[in-house]
Amino acid sequence: MKAVGWSLENSFGALPDLLFTPLAPTPVTRPTLVALNAPLAKDLGLDFSTLSEQEQAELFTGNRLPEGAQPLAQAYAGHQFGHFTMLGDGRAIVLGEQTTPSGARVDIQFKGSGRTPYSRNGDGRAALGPMLREYIISEAMAALGIPTTRSLAVAATGEWVYRETPEPGAILTRVAASHLRVGTFQYVAMRQDLSALAKLTQYALARHYPERLGDANPALSLLEAVIERQLALIVEWMRVGFIHGVMNTDNMAISGETIDYGPCAFMDAYHRETVFSSIDHAGRYAYGNQPTIAKWNLARLAEALLPLMDAEQNRAVALAEAAISDFVPRYNALWLRMMGDKFGLEGEEEGDAALIRELLDWMQDEGADFTRTFHGLRDGLPLDGELGQALSLTGWRQRWLARLQRNAGGLAAGQAVMARVNPVVIPRNHRVEEALEAASKEGDLGPMQALLAALAQPYAEGPELARYQESPKPDERVYQTFCGT
Ligand SMILES: Nc1ncnc2c1ncn2[C@@H]1O[C@H](COP(=O)(O)OP(=O)(O)OP(=O)(O)O)[C@@H](O)[C@H]1O
To answer: What Enzyme Commission number(s) apply to this enzyme (predicted)?
Structure first.
């Protein structure tokens, strides 16, 4: 195959053996390329244009491995809905790490590439619809400026996978800062291999937090770094109304990227208890619970790292608790700053939190659309439309405008920051479903391409975006999303 720019190495493969199994993807019958992310390829220093479409399809299904690939399946564990399980890549293979022209090192992984020793009862495969869904939503998240794994390609396998009904099979090529998860640490801790745990800790620091490598207590330093990244990440999810849906500890990345787009969804109408996932019966992973769950997951990471923090358990526990104990006030401060930006408030004033909460409560009572309301505030200053009238009745509009006038830069400064943080277009469920239906059932990729184009510039205005801004009509509403395997 012609050179496309691969620089693959697999540093993960140099970690202790218990962390992975060397394994190639299982070849597929009839590979067809469905989507290729050309801008991302360019960022990775890759150019596939010299390959024929058939060669690209062979490459993105694993029938022909890229040069330098050292494929392996990673082992990890995880608390799934609170219950601990030993897991691992049951349907994924990491090919290696690509060094990008900007010097970043990223994992290239196939998802849906066949059975592995960690497959349990699964078939090792993935269906086309869910892989395209991950492609669309992860790319939307990246365009929104939120840390996330990326999607380089989706290729169909030409084989059926059997879920509730037979569905076309596909493989997603995922790009990630790494696939280290909280669950990776839980796995090694459960195996009680302290030496492997220490090596994994050094590896994670080197890969994601090199500035902390010389710290006196590496495990504590890693915990602190991951807490900081996760705090920042969750606040970003809350900013755009993103609900991850399966915040199990195997789906929390040490890098601070969003990972695993299973039953995730963006909220239309604002409600703190919104849940889309069909398997989240208790609302454990509801929109408003995400900070609490993040803290719970981080406590699991802390537990896994305890033996490295101090030989004396009580002292280790005290260190871990000190690192995690101010999670809530830190989150609240970041949330308030983020919301202040969404409302265009410069600096912080005594009554800001109350002003913000009052509007959010109003939105929740009215079932107001989250994205449209903030877009309305951003665009409609000084709010003389329908939304303004509703908000005038409560006196909220007047108080908000008065607050904006007290910005050092006045209304204009508020409007500028609002334009930066309040998206116009998000991947609304009904539009995503429409695009997936056309792609996976009729083979028509047009709606998906159009949706991806709109999502690529989520803060831009334009008349052509109207259909992507609309809240779903009652008959378009998607009430549930499925784990989508
Ligand atoms: N069809 C399948 N065959 C084998 N294993 C599977 C299959 N689907 C999921 N798994 C495994 O079950 C576990 C939980 O699945 P989950 O849906 O959270 O992960 P995933 O979407 O496959 O992968 P990731 O978390 O890497 O995005 C993982 O260990 C995953 O590898």
So the answer is: 2.7.7.-, 2.7.7.108
Are 444 and 438 a contacting pair, CB within 8 Å? yes
Residue type, 459: Y
H or E stretch covering 318: helix 313-324
Strands (E), 249-297: 265-266
Q: How close is the Cα of 89 to the center of ligand 1, in Å?
A: 7
Q: What does the chain come to in residues?
A: 485
Q: What is the pLDDT of residues 221-231, one digit of tens each?
A: 999 999 999 99
Sign of torsion over alpha carbons 175, 228, 203, 197: negative
Q: Is 117 in the pocket of ligand 1 (CB under 6 A)?
A: no
Question: CA 95: distance to chain centroid?
Answer: 21
- What pLDDT score does 23 carry? 98
Is 47 near ligand 1, meaning CB less than 6 Å away?
no
How far is the C-alpha of 405 from the C-alpha of 399, rounded, in Å?
10
Binding residues for Mg(2+): 251, 260
Contact between residue 345 and residue 407 where contact means Cβ atoms under 8 Å apart? yes
The first and second tokens of residue 59, run together, are 């490459």
- Ligand 1 pocket test target in 260, 261, 278, 481 with most atoms within 8 Å of CB: 260
Question: Does ligand 1 have an atom closer than 6 angstroms to the CB of 251?
Answer: yes
For the chain, give the mean pLDDT.
95
Residue 349, CA distances (Å) to 44, 336, 342, 470 in order: 44, 11, 15, 34
**Cα-to-centroid distance, 50 and ligand 1 (Å):** 33
- Our answer to whether residue 250 is catalytic in this structure is yes
For the CA of 88, the closest atom of ligand 1 is: 29
**C-alpha to C-alpha distance for 343 and 151, rounded to whole angstroms:** 32
* Phi, psi values for residue 274, rounded to 5°: -60, 130
> Is this structure's pTM higher than 0.80?
yes
Instruction: For 1-32, write each residue's pLDDT tens digit.
Output: 668 999 999 999 999 999 999 999 999 999 99
Annotated binding site for ATP: 88, 90-91, 111, 123-124, 174, 181, 260
| Annotated catalytic residue within 89, 107, 250, 369 | 250
User: Position 230: which residue type?
Assistant: Q
**Would you tell me how many other CB atoms lie within 10 Å of the CB of residue 211?**
9
Q: Is the CB of 107 under 6 A from ligand 1?
A: no
